[in-house]
Amino acid sequence: MELSNKQITVIFKSLCDENRVQIFRILQNGELCACHLLEELHLSQPTLSHHMKVLCDSGLVVGRKEGKWMHYSISAEGAKIAVDCLKEITAVNESECKCCNK
Amino acid sequence: MELSNKQITVIFKSLCDENRVQIFRILQNGELCACHLLEELHLSQPTLSHHMKVLCDSGLVVGRKEGKWMHYSISAEGAKIAVDCLKEITAVNESECKCCNK
DNA sequence: CATACACATAGAAAAATGTCAATATGTTTT
DNA sequence: AAAACATATTGACATTTTTCTATGTGTATG
């Protein structure tokens, strides 16, 4: 997959703000439109819109437009990529034995 | 485990900065002291010290003091907690069927 | 014991991020 | 077509984060 350092920061920025973490908790119950998300968060509409953009940019959330509504949900594929990325970046190389290989 | 939103942000802040991601890449080759990390990064010594504090606070990195040196390494336990946390927060509830349970 | 070394902390400046009010855009309804 | 609605964008401000220089702390060494 070979993500750049920058791309990795974009993925995990989604989880660096308490309100965005809370949005994940709400979306765990299923797809929801922005106006319903707004009801459960103490945020202005533009602020929520900003957070949803950060979440969609990370790939962990996807938006689906339906008329004037935007429906947001957690992306299973995005989540898998993030988990794989986290595992990769925290894995320690075993191939460092000096006698057999580089 | 039941981590708070705040605790989750602390974990993933470790991966929200490109320099810190790069530090993970370097530590993947094994434990390293701060002065050697410094050689591979274009950062001042206090800035590196700051990033190492963020990383240790997240639990993904651990420091081991030996004389005047601090040796840093990736924490396998911390990584496991982070992966579990990421899986949990991105999991979608299945128990939402209206006919059988709440 | 004085000096050098490795790292941490304090304080300040700069950059990035979070927030809101106001406004714009696009869609539906009347 | 006008009005109402849902969401996005803009611009301003406050907070947080990143970064540095200067300095402090603890440890080893000459």
UniProtKB/TrEMBL annotation, chains A, B:
InterPro entries: ArsR-like_HTH, HTH_ArsR_DNA-bd_dom, HTH_MetalResp_TranReg, WH-like_DNA-bd_sf, WH_DNA-bd_sf. It holds the Pfam family HTH_5. Residues 1-98 form the HTH arsR-type domain. It comes from the Bacteria. The keyword Cell inner membrane does not apply. GO terms for molecular function: DNA binding; DNA-binding transcription factor activity. The keyword Transcription regulation applies. This is HTH arsR-type domain-containing protein. The lineage of its organism: Bacteria, Bacillati, Bacillota, Clostridia, Eubacteriales. Keywords: DNA-binding, Transcription, Transcription regulation. It comes from Ruminococcus flavefaciens 007c.
